[in-house]
Structures are given as structure tokens and as C-alpha cells.
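seq:
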Amino acid sequence: MNGVRRLRASSEQPHRGRTPSEWGPALIFLLPSIAVLGTFNFYPALYSLYLSLFEWNGLNPQRTFVGLENYARLIGSGEFWNALRVTLVYAAGVTLTALLLGVGVAVLLNQPIRGRAFYRVLYFLPVITPTVATGVVWKYLFDPTQGVINRGLGGVGIVGPSWLSDPAWALAAVILVGIWKRVGFNMVVYLAALQSIPKTYYEAAAIDGASPWQQFRYITLPLLAPTTFFLVVTALIDAFQVFDLVYVMTAGGPLTATDVMGYYLYRYGFRYSELGFASAIAYVMFALIFVVTVLQFRFSRGGGQVDR
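struct:
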């Protein structure tokens, strides 16, 4: 009884703050991570914000302070609005299509079918394939004369377009590859979410006479809402930062048809050596991604929480 009283008395004592001697070991262990993050993340981000207020070519030690002129020039540029439009189209096409295909594949591979482990690996392979290698291979596949895609279309009597050299088809081709890269990731995440849904829900629904479609609509989809929210946010962030795929496949062409924000930033920063203007582009991209994420949280009821 005395031990119980002592435990109760100690639990009722007000919690005291940690002393410097207790914080010391924690800081020692955190210092390597803080140093790495500060050197390669925080400092470059803050320095690029500072650099966006200057005109600098990256070589001349002299910098010209221009204030918000880089941002004003960016907003008034037709190239910026074209890059934003192309990025939004790419983001919408990849995000929505990959979500639908991902949940569909996940539902199918969640069934007790033969060889489903092999199919799961097969669908996930594009995710771990290097993007540069992916772009090179698909560039050959889309070749208008020797590519496998146009040869296949020709075999059924369809004349394939010049995919990557036609402004009307280039962005669609890049979106197709982006979907191919994204479906496997969505499938794995959805598959984990599906396996966490209690089977008793479906058993109760089946007893009540619910069809498989009704079970999917009224049980599976609502319970996948938090997962869908996560995938939408991450897909939009990735889409706004796409660069390497466009760089390898089209280099922003033809006629700026695939000039996404990432390639637009690269062109001014590393081809034209306008690092101040490129830094302004980077921060506008950050602002756009931040706004999109906040809107997603707002429309998804604060982070995709499902009402129970």
C-alpha cells in the first residue's frame, strides 16, 4: 500500500521541465542530422530566397540588387504562364489517371488469385526504375518510324503520330510515361490500406444483401479516403517538380509544349545563367505547391479524416 501511495503521489506532482543536463545528450545525438539538414536543405533554401532579390549570372562576384523585379518579370512573362498551364495539365493527367488505375489494380491484386505476388512486383518495377533510363527507353518506343508503339498501331491499320515531335501529342506522351511510373506506387499504398480494412464489414454487408459494387462504393471507398488524400497530395507535389523525365524525352519541346515549371527553372538557371530569376521561379513553385497542399487539406476536411 505504501508503494501505491508513493506512486500516486509522484504521479500527482506537477511535471517539471527538462534540465540542461538532460537536453545535452539529445542535442549531441541530433547534431549530425541538424548539420546535414542545415547544410543541404535549410541554408540553400534561405540563400535562394536572398538570391531571388538580385540579378546575378553565377560567375561575376558583383550582384545587382533588384528587389522584387524578378518576381514582377516572372508574373508578366508569357513563358511562365505557359509553363504553369503545362504543369497543371501534366499534374491533373498523371494524378487522376494513376489514382484510378492504382485503386483498380490494388483491388484486383487483393483478391486470392494465382501469382499475385509476381503481379505486385511487376506493377511496382516502374517505380524503382531510374527516371532517366525510363525516359530513354520510352523515347525509343515513341520513335515515329522505328518505335514499337507506332509499329503496333500500324499492324492494326492506324498511322501513329510523331509523338515527341508533334506539339499536339508530346505532352500526352510524357503524361503517359508519368502515369506508368506512378501507378505502381499508388497500387502498393492502396493495397496496404485495403488489407487494413476489417473483413467483418464486408461479411455484414453481404449478409444484408449488398452487391460487390455496393460494398466497394459504401465500404471500401470511404475507408480509403485518408489514403487517397495522401496520394493526391504527394502526386501533385511530384508533378509540380517533374524535370528529369521532360529533360530526357523532349527537352521542353516541341515549341514549349512540354515546358513544365521544373524545366523552365532549369533553362533560366543553368542555360541562361540568370540565377536570381531562377531563384524567383523556385520560390513561386514553392508557393504554388504550398497553396495546392493547403487547399487539399481544406477540401479533405483537415487531412482526409473520415467521419464515423
